[in-house]
DNA sequence: TTGTAAGCGTTATCAT
DNA sequence: ATGATAACGCTTACAA
């Protein structure tokens, strides 16, 4: 019995003794009120009894709309990508769209695989595309199939010199840094060290944003930019160890706070300070970025800036919806950022 | 210029001066070798010059295969769901399938929303379905649309009394517990406490698996089951605090190890032991489950059992592929589990 | 080896 | 208000 015959609208029409057209109208809510409520009832009853399920594929074929958005991402990473997808999915689902996942392997030949992934999704006739790129800077690589497809697309975190005819959404890194510094300044901290990547250190993309935010935050708080408190990394393979080392180096310079590019670094910093018996936050407060789950459980719990990635995803989804409605790709949008204050800055109030 | 006209295979045929059939054959690799290599070249050239992209929707319409797998999940949770999807996606992509995301909001009316989600995906003519359920036990709720659709489906972590005609994959909780206990026993621990949910405590689903694994692990290591070292929770709202409390209670009973249902609880345990100045792992070793990212960064780094969720996803994907090939839904499959040894059991060897 | 034509399940156009 | 009929772009017997 599991093998029911597929019911088509034609069969429903026959069963109800009406035309297929009438069935179609009922299916689409009969906007112009062309079907008498009597036959409407008959048709609905027939649908029920036959357990009819419309074939959305056929509909898409005809309407040239699939109600499907492709999401592609390179450089997947522990959850950060997911949170964005989640936000986007929700925004899009509310409008009746589904998500079709593009290739999500990091892949060596990035631009090439990006192109083929886009091609595949376009072949499947997605109505729009969201592309979440790794956090590195890049140029218009791999986007060529999109450009002349006319399919609206939103790029998330796509740092590029070139002008591109797509919507853009960025994670709020700069705001994150500004808020972090403001938070620390608000606690009376004045010598706020920075562990990240400076422009002199060759920062691009999101690392650049964070650095600029750090400087802007200092300016907002009327604090001086102290060169010797700013450290730039070159290689990121061991952020934890780097954080430890840098913390050691900084000690002599008596900072009263350390703001770190990410939580990994901050964890290293905390470990180093713990080992030295430095009081956190009384002597030195520490702030990280990204608000990893782990931040709650280190000792002391780490204040970190949540990048609100779901919100970024929602931003991307809503922007895409507008574009699907015919609006032009606007100026870039930036996601919010929120300081999650914990013991590493405010002491023992909460876990 | 972004608005190129859509190119169809018919246009390619005209342009190349051949029949649409020939184009179609080339598109599908011409299995029977019905097209001369000359015309093949002509056709390929035409495709290139017109920048032809086949419309996969139309193909699906005809072949009644969409090369699309729907994935539905209830009770999403910080990343655990994602890792499974990732594994499945990879396995399926290798065989040319794409993932269509079903509704992924927790939702109050779970069974109802599950049904509509399944219906929607079926309407979109997915070739198969993977359903990742929350970790709670359930009955055949919400699966009725699937049963008589004849569409193959794999359920992940679906704990149910009833027989169901679907493939099933379970996260390797029981094995996880067995390995954890073996790991501890291997280190010479003999009084291994358990913080989880016992059958007497009303465990079902995965909590039951873990408990059974704990007992099996003890048996394997010829260790006695010591009733007083086993604690069962009722309410899970504050696992961290519960872990702290239980650790305190256990102290008097002199356990030499504590195995926790999850990392949250284990973090609480570690915190309590740290406060008491108990040496970990010399006096008491601690093991958690799930291997959160945070496990690496607590003090001391926590040994935890990785549930290898990507592998579970891969298992699910591959099982589904087999079912798509006509094989029957087999006996349930269980994912692997791997102890990630860290300082909380083996001392300071690694972070 | 190549071409013709039917059909997949819808929706949209145009008469009735 | 309702019903034929033609698309949408592709695959696939079957005919040439």
What does this structure look like?
2 copies of one chain form a homodimer. Chain A is of the alpha/beta class. Chain A folds into 3 domains: 9-62, lambda repressor-like DNA-binding domains (434 Repressor (Amino-terminal Domain)); 66-171 and 309-335, Rossmann fold (3-Layer(aba) Sandwich); 173-306, 3-Layer(aba) Sandwich (Rossmann fold), CATH 3.40.50. The first copy, chain A, has helices at residues 9-16, 20-27, 37-50, 56-63, 80-93, 110-123, 144-147, 173-186, 205-220, 239-251, 263-276, 309-324, 343-346; strands at residues 68-73, 98-101, 128-132, 153-156, 167-170, 192-196, 230-232, 257-260, 285-289, 303-306, 333-334, 338-340. In chain A, the strands form 2 sheets. A 6-stranded parallel sheet of chain A has the order 2-1-3-4-5-11, with helices on both faces. Chain A has a 6-stranded mixed sheet with strand order 7-6-8-9-10-12, sandwiched between helices. Chain A is elongated. At the A-B interface, helix 4, helix 5, strand 2, helix 6 and helix 11 of A face helix 4, helix 5, strand 2, helix 6 and helix 11 of B. Strand 2 of chain A pairs antiparallel with strand 2 of chain B. Chain A binds a DNA duplex (16 and 16 nucleotides) through helix 2 and helix 4.
The most extensive contact between chains is: A-B, 54 and 53 residues
Q: State the secondary-structure class of chain A.
A: alpha/beta
The largest β sheet of chain A comes out as: 6 strands, parallel
- Helix percentage range of chain A: 40-55%
The CATH top-level class label of the largest domain in chain A: Alpha Beta
The assigned CATH architecture of the largest domain in chain A is: 3-Layer(aba) Sandwich
- As a whole number of angstroms, the C-alpha radius of gyration of chain A is 27 Å
| Strand composition percent of chain A | 5-15%
Secondary structure: number of strands of chain A: 12
Mean pLDDT of chain A equals: 91
SS field, number of helical segments of chain A: 13
Query: How many distinct domains of chain A?
Result: 3
CATH topology of the largest domain in chain A: Rossmann fold
């Amino acid at each position: 019995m599991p093998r029911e015959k597929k019911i088509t609208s034609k069969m429903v029409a026959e069963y109800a003794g009406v035309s297929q057209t009438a069935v179609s109208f009922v299916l689409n809510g009969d906007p112009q009120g062309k079907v008498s409520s009597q036959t409407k009832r008959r048709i609905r009853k027939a649908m029920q009894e036959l357990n009819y399920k419309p074939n959305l594929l056929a509909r898409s074929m005809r309407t040239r709309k699939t109600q499907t958005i492709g999401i592609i991402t390179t450089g997947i990473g522990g959850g950060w990508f997911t949170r964005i997808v989640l936000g986007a999915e929700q925004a899009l689902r509310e409008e009746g769209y589904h998500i079709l996942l593009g290739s999500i392997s990091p892949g060596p030949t990035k631009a090439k695989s990006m192109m083929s992934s886009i091609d595949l999704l376009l072949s499947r006739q997605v109505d729009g595309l969201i592309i979440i790129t790794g956090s590195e800077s890049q140029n218009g690589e791999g986007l060529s199939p999109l450009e002349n497809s006319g399919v609206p697309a939103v790029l998330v975190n796509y740092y590029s010199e070139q002008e591109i005819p797509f919507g853009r959404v960025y994670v709020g890194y700069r705001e994150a840094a500004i808020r972090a510094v403001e938070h620390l300044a608000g606690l009376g901290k004045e010598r706020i060290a920075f562990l990240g990547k400076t422009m002199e250190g060759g920062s691009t993309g999101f690392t650049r944003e964070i650095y600029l935010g750090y400087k802007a935050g200092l300016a907002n708080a009327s604090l001086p930019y102290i060169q010797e408190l700013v450290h730039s990394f070159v290689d990121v393979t061991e952020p934890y160890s780097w954080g430890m080392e840098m913390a050691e180096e900084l000690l002599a310079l008596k900072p009263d706070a350390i703001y770190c590019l990410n939580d990994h670094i901050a964890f290293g910093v905390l470990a180093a300070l713990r080992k030295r018996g430095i009081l956190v936050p009384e002597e030195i407060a520490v702030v990280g970025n990204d608000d990893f789950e782990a931040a709650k459980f280190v000792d002391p719990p780490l204040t970190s800036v949540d990048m609100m990635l779901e919100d970024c995803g929602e931003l991307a989804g809503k922007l895409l919806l507008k574009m699907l409605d015919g609006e032009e790709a606007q100026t870039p949008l930036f996601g919010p950022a929120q300081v999650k204050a914990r013991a590493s800055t405010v002491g023992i109030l909460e876990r």
